Amino acid sequence: MIEVGEKLVVLKNDLDTGEITIGSLSHISAFYLMPFIEKVRKEHKGLKVKLITAPNGKELIRLLEEHKIDFAIDTTKLENYNSQIIKEKIKDIDNIFISNKPLEIKELKELENYNFILGLGYTSTSKKLMSVLKENGININSKTEIDITELKVNAVKRDMGIGYVLKDAVRKELENKEVFEVKVPIKLPTSSLNLIYLKDQLTRADKTFINKYLGIKIAVK
Fold this sequence. Notes:
The protein is of the alpha/beta class.
């Protein structure tokens, strides 16, 4: 009975018969995770994949600590969180300003003439932006704060202001000329896309998926 039980555990942790629960924000899921999920489902038809989206990084951490997700993909900086949480950098992503029409800012001071749409409560990404601009003597105005990227993009399309978003999250809209990247005379801060998980809590299926599809090397035991 013990041997049978051990075999069942191994099977459930295998990509062909197991289950993976991933947490992320909706826009990151769309531009980053979906191609990998599509590929793994085609190659491992018995695998069950759950994708849980959250409004912000703080909520993802809560889901992780409550074991409602196996791991998360996010740009969270992880300040003052559980010491058992491990962060593995995946890649850097550019942040850009977007508007509903072509726009070029030739002098930084011009930015103060526009209204900006930033993350709700000034996220770490927005704070980094504000810090860089402040170093250059610029204070931008934000009368609109939106937590979800898709809604932020929608607000930009409605001419409610200039949005600040991850470039990868709006590539389709940029290509279709639904929104336009605002040209600015400064290098805007980048964000780090990270794999986030609890120490010793990843299953064999999790590790195999992370290794094979995300390209992050984690020892599979």
